[in-house]
Amino acid sequence: MIRSRTLALAALSLALFSSFPLAAQQPEQIRIDAGAPTTPFPHFWEQTFGSGRAILSLRQSYRDDLRTVKNVTDFKSVRFHGIFLDEVGLYDPDATTQNPGLPPEKVQGAGIYNFSYIDQIYDGLLANGVRPFVELSFMPRKMAADPNQTQSFFYKPVVSPPKDYALWDAMIAAFAQHLIDRYGIDEVATWNFEVWNEPNLDFWGGRPNMPTYFELYDHTALALKKVSQRIRVGGPSTAQAAYVADFLQHCKDHNIPVDFASTHVYANDTAKDVFHTDEQIPRDVMVYRAVKKVHDEIASSPYPKMPLLFSEYNASYSNEPDVTDTTYMGPWLANNIRQCDGLTESMSYWSFSDVFEEQGVVRTPFYGGFGLIAADSIPKPSFNAFAMLHRLGDHRIKLENEDALATRSDDGAIEVALWNYAPPFGTGAAYTPPPTSKGTDKKFQVTVAGVPSNAKVELLRLDDDHGNAVKAFDTMGRPRGSLTQGQIKQLKAAGSMAPAEQLRLSGGHLQITVPPHGLVLLVVK
Fold this sequence. Notes:
TIM Barrel, 2 domains, 8-stranded parallel beta sheet, 7-stranded antiparallel beta sheet, about 30% helix, globular
């Protein structure tokens, strides 16, 4: 009888405890010592950004967005495809026959190379404090072995190998010499020259693809170094973190110059493509695992100190509105930075703006584009995430927590990023209305030692209700087609960073609640 009663009371206690999940509500403890040893924390995630193809950089909207992102990240360089596309106009062996009424010596600028648009493109970047990260692509149509071999992008780049490598070598040398003549070798020597884009996919028409890409790389690297040994050249610029070890071994075996290794990964790449396994790797760790894989391959290569540049990465390569347009990007980005610190010299987010036409002319501002800024210069949540994380210091304080970063600045300020990661609420490329239940809030108890117990704290938030233009767009009913000026103004206001909250520590403590997909930045003064 006593045994039965005891079991009944135990069952009742368990039921009551289960209905009030107190343990789940206890704040996560974040303990920071302002005087603790630190490690260098270079802002590797915001040194370079990708963008739409080269010719788009001549547009006012592109340059406006570039200045906006530069202002909040101070990024140093931009990478884009297509500097050799026919629309840029560099190569035309028939240029002297285009004015048949005049003798060749009377044709203005006669010659097979025309640097007019290239100069405007690079001048425009440099005037805004941004250097080119030079991707050497794609093939001029009149140089291609097969001018009909094109990739499926809206602008149909020619991806064929050259019909004669002597033509390619001469163009590369002329291109490099012109840049040095115009900008000086001291400037050009700070740029990265990357040979082609993702040759292991349909961006390269040589077959078999990687051996023929190695031939392209060899010609290009040697042509550049013949102009100046100070030019920095690298590759293989592959998708899916592939072939870096093979590429470096090839360069070693054939005595081919290489100054950096570059590759790409996206968080929705598959384990089969990146690791050749059947794992199901979640989106929040895929980029880290790929970066670690390549970092370790380089460490075991003939060039163990070779700089690693991830010249493209993002949370999705497939235009998922529930991913790249939403507040999901705040925690995803912060967590990616936490994991990848120390493994790569640079990671180039693809891309800074949706002035971008790979899938065609943009029809709506929120379609899952890659950019931090949507069409009509509307800031996305990802823009605010970069703006917040830019304020992290240059000295990292070690934390054991997986949802926090702590840094110290040279002026003694302590910065703390906190986030509540949750998978995307939607289901894929098609937009899904926000669900009724969006997950569980997360509470943090932040303790900072080594500062006044009532120190001032500045707090910035990014979540569904702060810095989120998409919520306003949803309220509008997701209008299709062009927006009115009034709608654009409303969305810009909704997407602006929410004003900072001014708080104080209480006895060295501060409690913060962060909703799912929320990112918070604390600056302890």
